[in-house]
Amino acid sequence: MTTAAPVKTQYEAVIGLETHCQLSTDTKIFCNCSTEFGSRPNQNVCPICMGMPGVLPVLNEKVLEYAVKAGIALNSEIAPYSKFDRKQYFYPDLPKNYQISQYDLPIAEHGWLEVELVDEAGKVTRKKIGITRLHMEEDAGKLVHAGSDRLSGSTYSLVDFNRTGVALVEIVSEPDMRSALEAAEYAQELRRILRYLGVSDGNMQEGSLRCDVNISVRPVGRKEFGTKVEIKNMNSFSAIERAIDYEIDRQTTALEAGERIVQETRLWEEGSQRTISMRIKEGSSDYRYFPEPDLAPIEVTSAQLQKWKSELPELPAQKRHRYESELGLSAYDARVLTDDRSVSEYFEAVVAAGANSKQAANWVMGDISAYLNNEKLSIAQIALKPDTLAELISLIEAGTISGKIAKDILPELFSSGGSAKEVVDRKGLTQISDTVALETIIDEILAANPKELEQYRNGKTKLLGFFVGQVMKKTSGRADPQLTNQLLAQKLKS
Ligand SMILES: [Zn+2]
Predict the structure, then answer these.
(1) What is the CA(137)–ligand 1 centre distance, in A?
(2) Distance from the CA of 48 to the center of ligand 1, in angstroms?
């Protein structure tokens, strides 16, 4: 009698993200204080953002515009009527003891964004991730844990209110993600969209984009969610990915051992590459939300909505699809080129100037991107303009210069710009495609290297490369490579 081996339970992760994103308005959400990053502590404050008695907050119209544009770009329904609420809690960096946020009537709900995943074989999978809601709120200040007092030895903290009242949107996703990769892609696509819109710089180092991850694990096939854990304190996409992978592993191992998952908030520790418990959640906090009495409800008119809709740029997912369907690029190339809006616009300008799209893509993704990385520059900062790159590509295609020569003159074009043709003419770099001229050079080289010639004729055909190299050396790389190979092959045989 045989007994079947017990089937091992397969687990799957259920992941949702809450993202706080700082809007790139010049002034704060309810006052005229500057939002400049890196100012002297407590330089950008006033009675309104300090929550003094008797002051009246006024909504910055740009904040509403940016929030609505983000909502539209995330395929959400924009609420024609919404309002602000007070979220009560005490924290030393929150001078009012409440935060102005949106509770039951957020500005946008029921949206989605599309993530694109590429597996090892290059196969592309697209998936829609639901957006539960997007709401506007103000940021809190920042505590600086300064050290300990020299006399008493007691520790103390300083508070910087510059960030208090800076405009945020919080974007809450549906628990639609099933892997660390999907979650990291979601966060990146979200940032890409916000940057394309110009509503946020999405700078994670400066805290403009902060992600909290909710994650639980359940047996595959079960509908109910497992107990969820929240992970905070992640300041890069790779940290999000590693923290989730760690948590999936930790929770799965615990469940397999028959343990119970505790609902808690955990922190990602970069040093040890693990999550550690920060606090156990005992029920949900009661923030005693109530409508903010000092701010009028928000009504978005259909005229306003139409105007903001019409101002939206082409978004990353639309661009990716268009690059594949219209320009015939691979999904990979389309992804790389559309990651940054200014790079995609540069690329499109090169194509508009007449360059073949695949050639343009190769140059932008290859030499130009390497140069930008090395020099820590953005594409807008280089002297090589799209027209010139298109000109350079056309010189190669016309056979005027070789690809090697094009790469050689690139550094000059990067730093001084100007015309590619002018550089080629001035430096006398035009390709030698004249058969007679090339034959003369080849004859000289064969005569000067009798030993190698004999070895070649005795069967060491690998030496073809040596002769090609000699021709290139003699012509400073200007010999037409294809013609050189062809003529050399003929001469060596004879
Ligand atoms: Zn202020």
Answers:
(1) 15
(2) 5
Ligand 1 centroid to 37 CA: how many Å? Answer: 14
Where b means 16+ CB within 10 Å and e means fewer, 55-67 reads eebebbebbbbbb
Digit-coded pLDDT (tens) for 201-258: 999 988 899 999 999 999 999 999 999 999 987 889 999 999 999 999 999 999 999 9
Per-residue model confidence as pLDDT tens digits over 27-65: 999 999 999 988 899 999 999 999 899 999 999 999 999
Which among 211, 219, 218 is positioned nearest to 243, based on CA atoms? 211
**What separation in Å is there between the alpha carbon of 334 and the centre of ligand 1?**
43
Give me ligand 1 centre to Cα 26, in Å: 12
Dist. CA 59 → ligand 1 center (Å): 12
Residue with tokens 């960096």: 93
Q: Which residues pair with 269 in a beta bridge?
A: 274
Domain ranges of the chain: 16-36+51-136+168-215+282-304, 314-427, 435-493
Residue with tokens 């594949």: 324
Amino acid, res. 332: Y
Q: Output the CA 51–ligand 1 centroid distance in Å.
A: 9
Nearest one of 184, 188, 179, 182 to 117, comparing CA atoms: 182
- How many CA atoms within 13 Å lie on the side-chain side of 204? 17
CATH 1.10.10.410 holds for 435-493: yes
Instruction: Determine the distance separating the centroid of ligand 1 and the alpha carbon of 50, expressed in angstroms.
Output: 7
Check: pTM over 0.90? Answer yes or no: no
Under DSSP, the state recorded for 340 is S
Ligand 1 geometric centre to CA of 190 (Å): 29
Q: Which residue do the tokens 């403009």 mark?
A: 208
Task: Compute the distance from residue 94 Cα to the ligand 1 centre, in Å.
Answer: 13
Q: What angle do CA 295, 299, 303 make, to 5 degrees?
A: 145
